[in-house]
Specification:
By secondary structure, the chain is of the alpha/beta class. Helices cover 44% and strands 15% of the residues.
Length: 344
């Protein structure tokens, strides 16, 4: 069973417009609505800013069935403290039972360092993330006050109102180490900008190894492909939309470059061929289907359309009329209330 989600991308589209169109995206057939947690966008000229918690609450209020969540948020104690994340997610789950999921990751310099001045080495951020997942889950499940003493977090807490349904946790993974970690402690992994072959040959085997090590079914869990997608009937306009996210293909933008103006300048150096190879740049529904099928055939069971289309108003229609009817008939999809992202 394969499910399909979309991220309206409040970094390159106005959050007010995105809130108004999430209902259309749900009606088009998406069972999940995701949104990234950024303080700064990937580029300057058409960048936007929006707070993650208010955005998620607004998406939930303007949809009826879709599962909604951050993809991803770094609860590593730099911008976001794990207990605060646990409280925010539990509150959303109380207000919208069975309709929230949590995506987590190690953060990016353009968000963490710029707002706090802190940017620990990757090894420490990974350790912080693993510890934070344990603490968040403890908040959701502890039946009395508890004291958590870890390497990075020392908390004394009790969550009085807990979510009725377990909140799934999806962990960002760019390589085998984090994919294995996801299998150990999370309910799935998500990877950005990774080709289908890497999912099939590297990430999925590592994720399944983590599941086995944790004593869980290696066939369970979510293998999630984040597919940056720009659609427009005019192929040139579609490519322009992809250019906005060219910074995703610059490794330094994740760890070193803090300024979206510099990221945008560097992105101009990315060749058109590289954009077309890394992203789904499409002028027809058939092209989108073909790209998404590559990830499904590689073993991914949740596909996220990360929307960088130059005219997002066109997205719901092509998905409703062409993309999702074909994919759901061929690969199946269940209603959002019982969709594939569930606690393993």
């Amino acid at each position: 069973m394969v499910t399909f989600g979309i991220s309206p991308e409040c970094l390159c589209h106005d959050v007010r417009d995105n809130v108004q169109r999430v209902g259309d995206l749900e009606e088009a057939g998406f069972t999940h609505i995701w949104e990234g947690d950024h303080t700064l966008p990937w580029q300057h000229s058409s960048g936007h800013s929006a707070g993650i918690w208010v955005t998620l609450a607004s998406f939930l209020a303007h949809t009826e069935r879709a599962v909604v969540g951050p993809m991803v948020i770094p609860p590593i104690g730099i911008r976001h403290q794990p207990v605060d994340v646990a409280i925010e997610m539990a509150t959303l789950a109380l207000l919208y039972p069975g309709r929230v999921a949590l995506g987590v990751g190690t953060g990016e310099a353009m968000n963490e360092k710029t707002t706090t001045g802190q940017w620990p080495p990757l090894r420490e951020r990974i350790a912080r993330l693993m510890e934070s997942i344990e603490l968040i889950r403890r908040c959701w499940t502890a039946d009395d006050y508890f004291r958590f003493k870890g390497t990075y977090f020392n908390s004394f807490f009790y969550l009085y109102q807990k979510p009725k349904d377990p909140i799934p946790v999806i962990c960002a993974a760019a390589g085998p180490k984090m994919a294995r970690n996801a299998g150990l402690v999370a309910d799935g992994y998500v990877s950005v900008g990774v080709p289908p072959a890497v999912h099939r040959e590297v990430l999925i085997p590592a994720f399944e190894a983590g599941l086995r090590e944790a004593g869980r079914d290696p066939g369970s869990g979510v293998r999630c492909a984040w597919v940056s997608t720009s659609y427009h009937p005019d192929a040139g306009r579609a490519l322009e939309g992809g250019r906005v996210y060219g910074g995703l293909l610059i490794p330094e933008a994740y760890a070193y470059i803090e300024d979206p103006r510099i990221i945008e300048q560097r992105a101009l150096l990315v060749r058109d061929e590289a954009l077309q190879a890394a992203f789904c740049i499409a002028s027809s529904g058939e092209q989108i289907v073909a790209q998404f099928e590559r990830f499904i055939e590689a073993g991914c069971n949740h596909i996220i359309w990360a929307d960088m289309s130059p005219d997002p108003a066109l997205v719901a229609r092509v998905c409703r009329d062409e993309v999702l009817p074909y994919l759901t008939r061929k690969y199946g999809q269940v209603p959002a209330a019982t969709a594939g992202i569930r606690q393993a």
